[in-house]
Each structure stands twice: as C-alpha cells, then as structure tokens.
Design goal:
Largest sheet: 8 strands, mixed
Number of helices: 10
Structural class: alpha/beta
Strand order of the largest sheet: 1-2-5-4-6-7-8-9
Shape: globular
Order of helices and strands: HHEEEEHEHEHHEHHEHEHE
Length: about 350
C-alpha cells in the first residue's frame, strides 16, 4: 500500500481533472496536457499519427501485439479537456500490458463542440478501424486463418466512459458484436441534474467538486439531455442492451463516482450482461495516471493486461510491428442507429 505522502502527491497531480469555476478553459486544458503528457513513451511503444475520416488520432504499437485485436481508447478530461497527447503515456502502458495495438482519437470537445460532436468523431474512428480490420483479417485468411474476425476492445476513463457507452449503444448487429469487451476506468456515468454529486448533496471528492463537475456537464450538453443513456449511461434500458459486450470497471474506493458505477453494474447484470466491478482500496479518481507515486497504479494495469491476454490464449496470432492495414471499400451507411 502506498504511503500517505505518496497518496497526497498523487492527489495533487490528479487535481488537474478538476475544472474550477474561476479557471479559464484554455488554462484548464493547458494544465491537463502538461500534467499528463510526456516526451517519451514507456516500454518502447511506437507512436504513429493518422487521420481517421477527418479525425486525428495516434496509433500506439507495442513491440509485440496481437494481429487479431485492436483497442480504441477514449480519453477523459471532465468532458471539456483531455487530448490524445495527454493520454499517450497511459495508453502506451496499457497497450504494452495488453499486447494490443491501440488507437487514441483526438475528438472535438465542448463547449465549442458540444454533444454529439465527440461521439460522432469516435464513430468515424470506429468505422475506419472496423473496415481496416476486416481487410487485415481477410489477408490473414489467405494463410489459413479463414475464421478470424476483428476483435475490438473499447477502453475509456472519466468522461470518456459516456462516449464509449454511447458508441456501443449506437452500433447495430455485427458491428456491436465485434466489441469483445468494454473497460472503464473511474467512469463518470451520471451527469443528470438530479445526481447528488452535482447538487452538492454528496460529500466532496479528493479530486472534484460538485460545482466544477456541474459546470463541465453544462458545457457538454443542455440539462434536459442529460438523463438520456447516450449522455448518462445509468439511464440505459434493458431493450438497449441486446448484445452489449462484457464490461469491466476499475474504480477507486474513495471516488464519489463509485455509487453510480455500482448502479451501472446492477443495471447491466440485471439485463444479463456480464459486468465486473473492481473497487481499488484506498484509491482515488484515475489513480492509474499517478504511477510515479502509486504502486497500485502499476498493479491495476497489470491486472487489465492479464484479463485481456488470458482470453482465447493460444488462438491469437502475435505479430511484430509492421502490419499494414489496407483501406476498405465497405459501405458504412448502416453502422449506427439513427438515435446517435
């Protein structure tokens, strides 16, 4: 267990997630990026910049990765901040631990681009990734692996959890079933006006204040919209969850988002969806980003890596860096439900 001094140092760093009312948006974003970004990526992970149907993104490739698996990581940032740049060190560590090529989109942010702009950008990235993976697997089938199909993992944290859930809810048929699993780190799952967190009826978090979170929610979308499942996943209904993938939630014991995570787990399991909730003792919001202070951060990522790499062991093809994905000519008109 990390010491009290180490935990306080982590809290000081992670307060970059909090967007106080008196801070300018540009200052918040600059502080967030400078706090979490790094010139060097861990574990010799290679970074490639690419445009996905107009959406800039970074592709992270570990030295060894599965040719049948790709991860899309949807970053957090309290709805109004965050970037691929800020999340590259964490996403690279996750890519290495899971032996997964990982795409980190730089989607548009409110208030200049409120909901559904970020979701639309992530949908474009998913469309392109799916189509390219179909082509890649068809190329693999020429060497005798005709049954191979794209295996896509969606991971997200903080406010990115809302977009990740909305992405999956918007997918139809085989596109939804191509998602192997959804991983959520410290997810924000309810920004409805009635949530005690936003109204101040719940005690302060180590990182956030309810007032700051309310401000971010107001930037993201209007009040009446925030009780919809595409905005606040805790409002999802059973009829929306057909073929929803298994979910794994990793969250700190000290977060005031924990109650909503428990609620979301109960909704999913009540609808027959497997959902595992890992509550990390004594930990705070997105403690995984403070790995220089907290030993628990490394252990948490190791656990995610074991979960992903242990599934279907022996059936995956592992390849060195250099897999080239050809452009697909598949029609993408029917990927998503009109509601999205």
């Amino acid at each position: 267990m990390s010491s009290s001094k180490e935990l306080q140092a982590a809290i000081k760093k992670l307060k970059a997630f909090n967007f106080p009312p008196k801070m300018e948006l540009s200052d918040f974003r600059e502080k967030f990026d400078s706090t979490f970004s790094s010139v060097f990526l861990p574990n010799r992970v290679e970074k490639i910049e690419k445009n996905f149907d107009g959406v800039p993104a970074c592709i992270l490739q570990p030295e060894i990765y599965s040719s049948h698996r790709i991860m899309i990581y949807i970053h957090g940032g309290s709805f109004t901040g965050g970037s691929a740049k800020a999340y590259l060190p964490f996403a690279a560590a996750l890519a290495n631990a899971t032996s997964s090529k990982t795409v980190v989109p730089d989607f548009r942010l409110p208030p200049s681009h409120p909901y559904p702009a970020g979701l639309e950008d992530v949908q474009k990235v998913f469309r392109t990734v799916y189509s390219e993976e179909i082509v890649a697997q068809s190329l693999n089938s020429e060497s005798g692996d005709a049954s191979a199909k794209p295996e896509i993992i969606i991971a997200a944290d903080d406010s990115g959890a809302s977009i990740a859930a909305a992405l999956i809810l918007s997918l139809k048929g085989r596109f939804r079933t191509s998602i192997r699993q959804l991983f959520l780190f410290s997810p924000i799952l309810n920004i409805a006006e009635s949530n005690p967190i936003l109204t101040g009826r719940k005690s302060k978090d180590d990182i956030f204040t309810g007032k700051a979170l309310r401000r971010c929610a107001e930037f993201y979308t209007f009040t009446e919209n925030r009780t919809k499942a595409y905005i606040s996943p805790v409002f999802v209904t059973a009829d929306m969850l057909e073929d929803f993938p298994p979910v794994y939630i990793q969250i700190g014991e000290r977060e005031f988002f924990l109650d909503d995570a428990i609620c979301f787990q109960q909704i999913l399991t009540g609808s027959g969806i497997r959902c595992e909730l890992e509550v990390c003792k004594g930990m705070i919001h997105m403690f995984q980003l403070a790995d220089e202070y907290l030993r628990e951060a490394h252990l948490a990522i190791e656990r995610i890596g074991k979960i992903i790499t242990s599934k279907k062991s022996g059936s995956e093809s592992v390849t060195e860096i250099g897999l080239v994905l050809e452009k697909s000519r598949f029609s993408t008109d029917s990927f998503f439900d009109e509601e999205s």
